[in-house]
Amino acid sequence: MSEQTKQSIADSLESNKRILPYMPYLLQDMWALGCALQPIIDAAAITGLHEKSKVLDLGCGKGAASVQLAAEFRCNVLGIDATEPFLKDAQTKASEHKVSNLCEFVQEDILEYMKTEYHFDLVILASLGGIFGSFENTIASLRSQVKNGGYMIIDDGYLRTRNSLNRKGYQHYRNHKNTIGELTSYGDKLITEINTTDISRQINDEYLFVIEKRGKELIIEKPELKEEIEAYILLQYEECEVINTEIEGALWLLQKSLE
Ligand SMILES: C[S@@+](CC[C@H](N)C(=O)[O-])C[C@H]1O[C@@H](n2cnc3c(N)ncnc32)[C@H](O)[C@@H]1O
Fold first, then answer.
1. Hey, whose CA ends up nearest to atom 13 of ligand 1?
2. Is residue 54 part of a domain?
């Protein structure tokens, strides 16, 4: 795996390259790794997914959205993620939910995958932050994977009051008006916006609880990582505080314009 991919995974998990190998251990108790699941399913329902639909889940993690969409709509889902242990869990979950025949999980850097255009019915980007840079760049990337008239779901958020935040991982955030402006800058239709602030708080609380519990276990097993793990947990508390204060959680469903 390239250093760039490792950095991208570390950034998406607000981690660092040294403790990256231990992230699957720290996150073993969570299936969804940040996405607002029910809003994703609700938004997907609006698109009229059916047995012939093809869905792309970018940065699918352990397949929480992929598997539940396949189970609910019997659609075909391709999940792409660079973290192999997460993909193994995704396959296990697909099997438990009896949708292995509908789900494919591939280990690849999504930035590489996006270099080719595809024609999915729906593309999902859930809890990947600013991996493509600004929201304008994000929508440009997503729409290259969707057929005309197809749909895109972005599970992220916007700044409550300010119009920018000078903090690593938060540079793509804008206020609501400017976020919507960027998301629709290619003429795509905003079908719905679902507020996910409360769900995001619950997810963050669960996240803090599990990483603290698993972090303590890991320190006993690997005392040499004590400083790194403690710093990581502290950073997560800080991140959650910033999110709770500054960010309104939102999920957007957009329909690609007929070009
Ligand atoms: C915060 S998790 C979200 C996972 C999933 N969408 C969910 O909400 O359950 C971010 C995921 O993106 C993956 N990731 C980050 N950068 C990536 C890249 N460049 N290529 C592929 N996967 C990447 C990580 O491995 C991780 O599984």
1. 59
2. yes
